[in-house]
Amino acid sequence: MRITNKILANGYLTDLNRNLENMSKLQEQMSSGKEICRPSDDPFKVARTMELTEDISINERYAKNIDEGIGWLNSVESSMGLMTEALQTIREKTVAGGNDPNSATERKAISDEIKALKDTIVNLGNTVFDGRYIFGGDKTTEPPFTIEAGKVVYKGSPNGIIRELAPGVRIDIGVIGNNFMGVFETIDKITDDLDHDKSSSEYLGELDTNMDNVMRMRSEEGAKWQRLNDMKKKNGEENFNMTELLSKTSDIDVAEKYMNFKMAESVYIASLESASKILQPSLLDFLR
After folding, report:
1. CB 29 within 8 A of CB 247
2. 235 close to 91: Cβ distance less than 8 angstroms
3. Hey, is 154 helix, strand or coil?
4. I want to staple 136 with a disulfide (CB 3.0 to 4.6 A). Which of 53, 156, 183, 206 is the partner?
5. What CATH number is attached to the domain comprising 137?
6. Residues of the chain with pLDDT under 50
7. How far apart are CA 76 and CA 279, in angstroms?
8. Which pLDDT belongs to residue 101?
9. What's the pLDDT score for residue 283?
């Protein structure tokens, strides 16, 4: 086969174009910071990148639910802690109201103090977190507790608030205030006896039972809070690992790409220089 100038030129142009394409790809990768600029670059990596991006997005939604749950339960713990303190004070005053030396006036004064503490507990039952009432179950837009004719009425929902915090993991962060309504009935019995100059000690056992119920609920919510904090840590670790894997899959090594680009650039320049030596003048060049 006879090698002509045309064959040499075509071969040279093919190689030159290949070098230009390589330089263009490297330059595009450096400007975008991504290994994959289009699906045709590497279909497997593109699919893996899309999968990791979706997983990270889902994990971030779980993180948002976890943070909401932690904030919600923080508010529950704070409110129930203050309820417990108010109930302990009510107990102390109930004991004091049971002492025989108390006059009717003294017992009425104790009753008024207990009623004020009852109002405090009602207000705590209407605590709001992020614009929503936390003790009304899944009915969060209206106060769950009202006082009608001197009696506390629960107007919340019997249903909880379910949040998905991880694949297949759902937790009820809602608190149904109706579960501690009994404490108000007991308080009313105590104040009614004191208002009628009667000893209030008869209801101490009933009050203790209601206080234990509030403490049990508080303990349950505290256990949920701890679980959510553990899940927050795990979620953060998973998100970090997936983000790091995504970076390894799609992001470039800048130093490596720059070195590769400079090498490709050197090859390109060398090919231009060598072309003038390899492609000798043809007969037509002398006939011009």
Report:
1. no
2. no
3. strand
4. 156
5. 1.20.1330.10
6. 283-284, 286-287
7. 84
8. 80
9. 47
Fill in the amino acid letter for 114: I
CA distance 5 to 2: 10
Q: Are residues 239 and 270 in the same domain?
A: no
pLDDT tens-digit map of 103-142? 899 999 999 999 999 999 999 999 999 999 999 999 999 9
**Beta-carbon contacts of residue 168 (< 8 Å; ≥ 6 apart):** none
Are 112 and 206 part of one and the same domain? yes
Half-sphere exposure of 6 (CA within 13 A, CB side): 2
What 8-state DSSP symbol labels residue 280?
A: P
First to last CA, the chain: 28
- Flag whether 38 is in a domain: no
**CA Rg value for the chain:** 38
β-sheet bridge partners, residue 145: 154
Q: In the prediction, which pLDDT does 43 show?
A: 65
Note whether residue 284 is domain-resident. Answer: yes
Cβ distance 138 to 159 under 8 Å? Answer: yes
According to the model, what pLDDT value does residue 117 have? 97
- Rounded Cα distance between 212 and 218, Å, is 10
Among 210, 212, 189, 213, smallest CA distance to 201 is for 189
Contact between 200 and 193 under an 8 Å Cβ cutoff? The reply is yes
Alpha-carbon distance of 134 to 118, in angstroms, equals 18
224, 173 Cβ separation under 8 angstroms: yes
Side-chain-side CA neighbours of residue 192 (13 Å): 10
Give the phi and the psi of residue 101 in degrees, each rounded to 5.
-65, -15
**Contact criterion met (CB below 8 Å) for 125 and 118:** no
